[in-house]
Design goal:
Number of helices: 2
Shape: rod-shaped
Largest sheet: 2 strands, antiparallel
Radius of gyration: 21 Å
Number of domains: 1
Number of strands: 2
Order of helices and strands: HEEH
Strand order of the largest sheet: 1-2
Length: about 80
């Protein structure tokens, strides 16, 4: 293989895996912020003995889990090609 062709192949591999990392980060962040938004809309603070306590951020938690699952699915789908 020619040195120029080897450099092109290395660059393609680098760009492929770099874009996959950014795609993974973006997917997780989208689901995380969607969960935070849903928590702000649908969960309320509970008043226990006169003190306000925030409810458990269930939508944020579920959003983070779904974001990781979705990003892994997309990465595995991309690697299969």
């Amino acid at each position: 293989m020619k040195p120029e062709q080897n450099k092109i192949e290395n660059t393609r591999g680098f760009l492929k895996y770099t874009s996959m990392a950014f795609q993974m980060i973006a997917t997780i962040l989208v689901f995380l912020f969607l969960g935070k938004y849903l928590d702000s809309r649908f969960t309320e603070t509970a008043s226990l003995s006169g003190k306000n306590h925030k409810a458990f951020p269930i939508f944020t938690f579920v959003g983070a889990i779904l974001g990781v699952a979705a990003s892994l699915y997309l990465i595995l789908k991309t690697l299969k090609k």
